[in-house]
Specification:
- The complex is a heterodimer of chains A (115) and B (109).
- Chain A is mainly β and 115 residues long.
- Chain A has no helices and eleven strands.
- Classes of the chains: A mainly beta (115), B mainly beta (109).
Chain lengths: 115, 109
């Protein structure tokens, strides 16, 4: 079946512009996660959703970052007034439910470059 | 969150077994041990997970020490496609994955 999809695959933007990154999780998965991976760095957790609610937003690096999930499916990560340090690969993952043992399925990522 | 320690890199020859170690001396009784891998230019991929007993699946085996302070991911016959960064992760509370630097596995033909 279809895996996690993300769009766009690549995004180049100018400093100060807003960007929206989209994630389509696997159908039926109630949990959705956003991570980012900067060049040469490990993966950094940003936020997760259980259904449409986001119990923990502490991983978002600044108030320029926000995310929403509607209808328990598609999620959008928005970065306002982008900065060069926002350049990274943004990865989305989904799992059947939130829990210690639930396998997370990752999408291919969106590579964001801020000039 | 309990942390894990892995070697920065390991090398193997194709078709040989590979044992990737992970130390997690501060693991709590309810932490699951997960392994993910990331191939170049791709998102991470689930490999295997376990709690106390050794586990086998089509991709690999996971050997967990009796005191749970360490574990070993075993690839029975390495292929070139197995060249990746392998992450050993403990999950506690909700299932956010905290990735460390992992072990880069190099496989030679």
């Amino acid at each position: 079946g279809a895996g996690v999809s993300q769009s766009p695959s690549n995004k180049v933007t100018e400093k100060g512009k807003d960007v929206e990154l989209r994630c389509d999780p696997i159908s039926g998965h109630t949990a959705l996660y956003w991570y980012r991976q900067s060049l040469g760095q490990g993966l950094e957790f940003l936020i997760y959703f259980q259904g449409n609610s986001a119990p923990d937003k502490s991983g978002l690096p600044s108030d320029r970052f926000s995310a929403e999930r509607t209808g328990g499916s598609v999620s959008t990560l928005t970065i306002q007034r982008t900065q060069q340090e926002d350049s990274a690969v943004y990865l989305c993952a989904s799992s059947l439910a939130v829990g210690r043992y639930n396998e997370q399925f990752f999408g291919p990522g969106t590579r964001l470059t801020v000039l | 969150d309990a942390k894990t320690t892995q070697p920065n890199s390991m090398e193997s020859n194709e078709e040989e077994p590979v044992h990737l170690p992970c130390n997690h001396s501060t693991i709590s009784g309810t932490d699951y041990i997960h392994w993910y891998r990331q191939l170049p230019s791709q998102g991470p991929e689930y490999v295997i997970h376990g709690l106390t007993s050794n586990v086998n699946n089509r991709m690999a085996s996971l050997a967990i020490a009796e005191d749970r302070k360490s574990s070993t991911l075993i690839l029975h016959r390495a292929t070139l496609r197995d060249a990746a960064v392998y992450y050993c992760i403990l999950t506690a509370g909700y299932s956010t994955l905290t990735f460390g630097k992992g072990t880069m596995l190099l496989v030679s033909p």
